[in-house]
């Protein structure tokens, strides 16, 4: 009983921190947004968070879109990485496909922008490839 309660408390604590990081993606400060992206990258790569992400995929997609559009260099690179991990977490179902479809034009735009940093372009290329592999509907 008490172990389950402690585990539940830990999960809620993790979710609260993640919610805070998602909120930080909308901060005016680029440093704050980058720190939030780094925290999300760590969280998404170390734990399965399907339930949490399903509920917040639209908000997260909007935030990542803003980071890719308005961010520069490091922020765009991190956003591409977080997007790849989000796609991995969402899987090959309609949710993952929806996330990919909404951000694909932006990924292509950063990838083909010769003024974007090499890191950002590389990250967007990886995101494009991975998300396409995982979440793109079979085109017949």
From TrEMBL:
<protein>
    <submittedName>
        <fullName>IFRD2 regulator</fullName>
    </submittedName>
</protein>
<dbReference type="InterPro" id="IPR039777">
    <property type="entry name" value="IFRD"/>
</dbReference>
<dbReference type="InterPro" id="IPR016024">
    <property type="entry name" value="ARM-type_fold"/>
</dbReference>
<dbReference type="InterPro" id="IPR011989">
    <property type="entry name" value="ARM-like"/>
</dbReference>
<feature type="domain" description="Interferon-related developmental regulator N-terminal">
    <location>
        <begin position="5"/>
        <end position="138"/>
    </location>
</feature>
<comment type="similarity">
    <text>Belongs to the IFRD family.</text>
</comment>
<dbReference type="Pfam" id="PF05004">
    <property type="entry name" value="IFRD"/>
</dbReference>
<dbReference type="InterPro" id="IPR007701">
    <property type="entry name" value="Interferon-rel_develop_reg_N"/>
</dbReference>
């Amino acid at each position: 009983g008490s172990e389950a309660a402690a585990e539940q408390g830990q999960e809620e604590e993790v979710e609260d921190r993640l919610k805070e990081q998602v909120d930080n993606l909308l901060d005016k400060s680029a440093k704050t947004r980058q720190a939030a992206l780094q925290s999300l990258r760590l969280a998404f790569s170390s734990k399965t968070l399907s339930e949490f992400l399903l509920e917040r995929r639209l908000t997260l997609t909007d935030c990542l879109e803003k980071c890719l559009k308005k961010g520069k260099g490091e922020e765009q690179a991190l956003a591409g990485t977080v997007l790849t991990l989000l796609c991995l977490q969402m899987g090959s179902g309609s949710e993952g496909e929806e996330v990919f479809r909404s951000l694909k034009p932006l990924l292509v735009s950063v990838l083909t922008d010769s003024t974007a940093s090499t890191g950002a372009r590389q990250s967007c290329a990886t995101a494009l490839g991975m998300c396409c592999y995982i979440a793109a509907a079979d085109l017949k």
